[in-house]
Protein 1
Amino acid sequence: MNHSLYPVAAVLLSLTMLQPPQAQAQVAHAKGYEAPVVFQAAGPDTASIQGAVDGYRLALGAVNNSNAPGPLAEGRREINWDGGGSIATSIAATPFAGFLNTRGALFVTPGSGFVQAPASGLADTFGNTDYETIFQAFSPVRLFSAIESNVTLVDFFVPGSGGGLLATTRGFGAIYSDVDLPDGSGPGGKHGNRKASTLVEYYGLDGELLYSSFVPAAPGDGGIAFLGIVFDDARVARVRISTGNVVPGADDARPLDVVVMDDFIFGEPKLVQ
C-alpha cells in the first residue's frame, strides 16, 4: 500500500465506505481482537457529559496540540467548529479540508457538503425553524452537520503535511446534539434492540471494521451525548458517522431523529510507516 496518500486518493477510498453498514457482530469475534476503552455519556445539558469528555481527553493525551505540525509523540487534537467564537454560518463543499493541514482530519460526505453554524444558522440552512430550539452546543456556539446526507466520514493525516502523509490514531470521540431514540424504533434501527439512532464505526488501514457502537440517547429536545474510544495503539484510519436516521431538514419527531454534531476529539495522528 502506498501510505503517502493525498486527499483526493483518500476521498476515492472513502466513497467505498459511504454505503449502509453491514452486520456488526463480526467485530467482537475477530481472532485476536482487543476491545477499546469506551467513554460515553448522555443527558439534558453539557454538565451531564463533561466528566466523560474530560476523562477521554486525558486518556488520549493531556496536551491539546492545536495547530502544531506533526508528527508529534503525544497529545490529542480537537475541532470545536467555533472559529474563535464566530456566530456566522459557514458552508463548505465536500471533501472539506478546512482542518486537514492544521489538525490532520479530512471530512467527506455523500451529500453536497457541510455546515458550521449556531442553532439559528442550522434552522436557516435546513429550512426548519424547530432546529433553533432542539439543538444545543457543547462548546459555544457553532455545531457541525453534513448537508443532504446524515453520513460523515473522517480520514486522518499527519498535521502539517497538507494531506500528503497518511496517519492513524488511537481513538476518536465526538459530541452529538439531540440523539432522541434509545431503542432503535426509527428507520435506522431494529425495533426493541435498545440501539440508538446514531452509529459510529471505526476502520483500520485495510478497511477492516475495528469497532462500532451506537451513541447513547438523551430523550427530549436539546439533549447532548458523547461517545469516544481509545485503543492501545494508533490503528484507526477512518471513522464513519451516521447521525440520526434521516437527512437534516426533516422534522425531528418519532420515528425520525435528526442529529447534529459538536466537538471532535482524537488522538495525535501517527505517521503510517
Protein 2
Amino acid sequence: MFTSLRRSVRGIGDGVAPLTALAAYLLLGMVAVVIGFPFFWMVMTSLKKLADVYVLAQVVPPDPQWINYLNAWNKAPFNWYLFNSTFTAIAILAGQYMTIIPAAYAFSRLSFPGRDLLFVLILTTMMVPIQVTFIPAFVTISRLGWKDSYPALIVPFLTSAFGIFLLRQAFKQIHQDFMDAARLDGCTHLGVMRHVLVPLNVPTLITFGLFSFVYHFNDLFWPLIVTDSQLMRTMPMGLSSFIEFEGGTRWHELMAASVFSMAPLIIVFLFAQRSFIKGIASSGLKG
C-alpha cells in the first residue's frame, strides 16, 4: 500500500518527500472543498423549490426545478443587464490598455525629470480606498450631464494604477537588446511597444484583463449611484430584484440568477486560465 502511495505522488517535484507531497495534496483538497462548497450549495439551491430551500438535510434536490432559471431570467430584463455589464467591462478594459501600456513604457524605459516621484504618486493612489473618489467623480459626472449613461459607467475607470505598476514590472524584465534592435530597425516608441513589449507580455496583459473584467463586471456600488433607469442597470443590480421585503426573498430564483450571472466570468477564465497562470508566474514583481 505504501508503495502504491509512493508511486501516486512520484514526480511532484525534485527533492519533495512522498509523504510531504501527499500531505500537500490533502491540504489543497481541503482548501478546494472549502472554497468550492458555497458554489455547489448555490447551484443546488437554484434547483430547489422555495419550500425546500430551508431544508438543510436536503442538499441535492430529488426533483431538480430547471424552470427556476427561466423564471429568474424573466423576472427582470437580464438581457439588458448582461449586455450592460459585459459592454462596460470590455470598454473599460480597452480604455485601460490604451492608457496603462504607454504609461508603463514611459516609467520602465524612458528617463525624464520626476519620473520616480510621479510613479510613487501613482502607487500612492492604490492605497486610497476607491470609495473616497466616488463623491468628486459623481459630482463631475453630474455636471457633465452624463448621469444614467454609458460614459458615466466607463470614463472614471479608463486607467488603472495597478495596471501601470504590473506592466511596468513586466516591461522591466525585457532585455534592453530587444529595445536596441527595434530602434535600429527604425521603430519609434510606439513601434517598440507594438512590436516588442506587447507581444512579449501577452500573458501579463491577459492577467490584468481578467482582473479588470471580473472587477467591473461585478461592480455594484458605482452603477448603483450613477444610473436611474432600469435599462442602464448591470447584473449585480439585477440580482436585487429578487429581494422582496414583504413576500420574502425568493432564494431559489436568486441563486439561479447568480449562476447565470457567473457564466460570462467562467467562460472568460476558461479561455484565459493558461495565460493567467503564466502571467502571474512571469510578471516579475521585483526591481
